[in-house]
Amino acid sequence: MPPGFKLWRAHVPVTIGILLLLGVLVQRGRALTRPVSAALWLMPSRGGRLRNANLTPEYRRGLRTAAFWLYDLARSLGTRLTRSTPAPVVDRVLERCIDVAYQRGEKLYFVRLGLIGLQRVFHLSGPLLRGSWAAIRGWRVLQPVRSRVPMSKAILKSLLVTLLATGHGLAGRSREQYWASFLATWLSFEGLLRPGETSVLRVGDLCFPDGVAGEDAQEGLVVTIRKPKTRRLWQTQFVLIKCSELIAWLRWWCSGWSRDRLLFRFNRRRWYQIFQHGLLRLCLEDRGFTLGSLRSGGATWHFRTYENLSTLQYLGRWARADTLRYYLHEALTVRVEAESRPEAKQHLEFALSHDSGGLKPVTEALLSAVDSAAAQLGPLEVDSGLTAKDILEDDQTRATADGYSTAAMDHAFVFKETCGLTLVVALLLLAMLFPKLVALLLGGLVRFVLRGVATLAGSLVKELLFQASALIGELEQHLIVWLSAQFGLQSPAPAPVPIATALPGSTSSQDNYERVHPPSSLPARPMDVITWVLLAYNAYLQRQRGGVTMQQAVGSVLHGQAVRCIRLKLYHHRPAATTRLTLPMKTSLAAQSFVSLGFA
């Protein structure tokens, strides 16, 4: 037998063992990488099918998530569903899962989405799952009716005036957010837009008319909705806005901005907060208005004005006419406005009295004065060989004057971004010109910050240890007293707390205060510094909201610190001085409470 054959025969078992071990490792790796739910293998995340062409990636992701959850719920109930499972069995199991989900208080939308996802996975039609869909319909019937409360045109105008005036009193980012909420609310009402569609609009999605200001209402503003909620009509939808005032505001708002910039730079939550703040100022916070009330209110106003359902269906992009019954609430609109509080009606009347109608006489008087002044100047040249009358009649001059009048407001929001970019460029140039100096400054700054953090952390640890030791000592003293009382032993009674309540002629407290004591230093109190910082911030917030004053906040914190010092027995070194500090403070706090309650 050749020696090579012996060597090969000796290595064959080793090679086979290595291959078997690799196979086992590969199988275990696949088992580990396989998801917990088998629905992942039934419903792959990759697309490419024509039946998914009309579904957004977010909706497909929601289908997968809901299908995984419903599949796992069925498996937890003792049934493993596959594509080979008969349709009646699938229907019975899913109906039971829906009943369990209802008892657990799950969301109806999520359960229905999971049912649709499993129906698509198992390639089943709706009639084969009659029991499951009947359970969904029963669940929907048992839910309380929550109709959208439509917003009337009068309330909308009052809210717009309130948001515009509130934003005018602010500055910077806050003014931009309030004015953006003002325009987003108006646009959602006029264009029947959903809140999610309005919040993702970009400047390039608005196509302004090319006509002059008087002809804008005839041509209209085209709003492109690239991410609509439903795509039953079109994947990309369009809305026509014919309100000339809104078109002028949006044209001013978008001037000087790039096309890919967000039209309203806030999220939906911030928009809702500003929306509710405007309603709160109008005393309408209890009327049930939400951002969805804008689409419903716009549809109701359009129907009351034009009484044309087909035009309204096209404007609102509804696939079926029967969907309008969820949006048209004429009687509810009148009822909500009529049942408002008297304060709300006064606020509405006050806000509506400050519309553009009150400024028309002033504008007309100003224009007549300008025309009379131009007539008095006559043929006298004013600028570049032009008379005053020629300047007033020149369209280019008017456009230039309009640009001058709105230039500051046009770039009010871009100013901070430009300043930030200029600061970054200046810092980069400084780093390029003086690299060693910048490196030294950065190193010193980092060292200073680290040393400060280390010192603060050490002080905090010392303070916590001191507080813990004081608490442990007090607890130990209480335990000793209690055990001594239980065992019948005598324990030394603690010394009474000296209180400076002497008679007018007595000098005991003064003698106690003037007595010489050995010098002692109290431990560092970094927690007090943090308390003062938080106190100042809280007082600032309370002043912004109209809450307690700074004096009351400082008094309450000082009182809490004094009580804590007494509990920790830090007054033993100077008891009279400590008592003098605490007692007037308590008296002032009692007087403040007496006055704040209205008994003064």
Notes on the structure:
- This protein is mainly α and 600 residues long.
- It folds into five domains: 1-27; 41-142; 153-346, Intergrase catalytic core (hpI Integrase, Chain A), CATH 1.10.443; 437-494; 509-596, no CATH class.
- It is 65% helix and 3% strand.
- It contains 25 helices and five strands.
- The chain has helices at 3-33, 39-42, 57-76, 87-104, 108-121, 130-142, 153-168, 173-191, 195-199, 216-219, 244-254, 268-281, 292-306, 309-316, 330-338, 342-352, 360-377, 388-393, 395-410, 414-433, 435-487, 508-514, 526-545, 550-567, 575-596; strands at 206-207, 221-225, 237-241, 381-383, 386-387.
- The strands form two sheets. The protein has a three-stranded antiparallel sheet with strand order 1-2-3. It has a two-stranded antiparallel ribbon with strand order 4-5.
- Helix 7 (153-168) crosses helix 16 (342-352) and helix 24 runs antiparallel to helix 25.
Average of pLDDT:
73
Uncertain residue ranges: 31-47, 212-217, 404-415, 499-514, 516-524, 566-600
Helix content: 55-70%
Fourth CATH level, the homologous superfamily of the largest domain: Intergrase catalytic core
Order of helices and strands: HHHHHHHHHEHEEHHHHHHHEEHHHHHHHH
CATH class of the largest domain: Mainly Alpha
Number of domains: 5
Secondary-structure-derived class: mainly alpha
* SS summary, helix count: 25
At CATH level 2, the architecture of the largest domain is Orthogonal Bundle
The global form is extended
The whole-angstrom Rg is 38 Å
